[in-house]
Amino acid sequence: MHGPAMSSWLLMALCGVTGAYCLLRMRSGTEEQRRTARAEALMGFGMAAMAVPAAVITPPVWGWAVYVALFGGAAVRALWFARRNGHHLHHLIGSLAMVYMAVVMAAPGSGAASHGGHGGHQMAQAAGGLPLLTGGLLVYYAVYVLRSGVRLIPVAATADAGGGQVPGGRTWGARPELALACRLTMGIAMFAMLLTL
């Protein structure tokens, strides 16, 4: 997951801030909105942790198994809630993508496994994952990012239609345009992480 150190730091910061905003979103809204915010916070913080430059922290070999267990559990949870809300299918795909990246990073011969931690560019050269699966995930996230970006435009225009005031005195955690921006940000980050496989 690690290319040049600067891009890793930026990706880590972006995902961390997005995860923190999702925690803020958990304080308002309906139960379904809070559940979605929890899933997105987990994804944001998980992606931030995976993006930490290898020069800073070399996770133990068992660290990748923790990612697999954590996001495997998140995938099962997303599958359960997808019965009621189609957005959880996106969480399911995201969780499975995190499991896939962790498995690739831990695979023998990857930069991560052979250098005792996450190896990033060495991993991209050595292991690479399954090209068809990686390509499919890249296409999914490219479409998701474009779709989220298009959906963000009308929401921003609606919010500004009231003279810059947020209707109903909503808090930062209840702003739909910020929630969409978070999803867009995490989609872009996931796309960037998948590019390194």
How far is the first residue's CA from the last residue's CA? Answer: 7 Å
The number of distinct β-strands equals 0
Strand percent estimate: under 5%
What's the number of helices? 8
Instruction: Using the CA coordinates, give the radius of gyration.
Output: 17 Å
Kindly name the structural category.
mainly alpha
Shape label: globular
Strand count, sense and barrel status of the largest sheet are: none
Helicity level:
over 70%
Total count of domains: 1
Mean pLDDT: 80
Order of helices and strands: HHHHHHHH
Uncertain ranges: 113-126, 159-167
Could you characterize the architecture of this molecule?
The protein has one domain. 71% of the residues lie in helices and 0% in strands. It has 8 helices and no strands. It is an all-alpha fold and 197 residues long.
Give the secondary structure arrangement, pairings included.
Blueprint: H1 5-25, H2 31-50, H3 63-81, H4 87-106, H5 111-114, H6 121-126, H7 131-160, H8 176-195
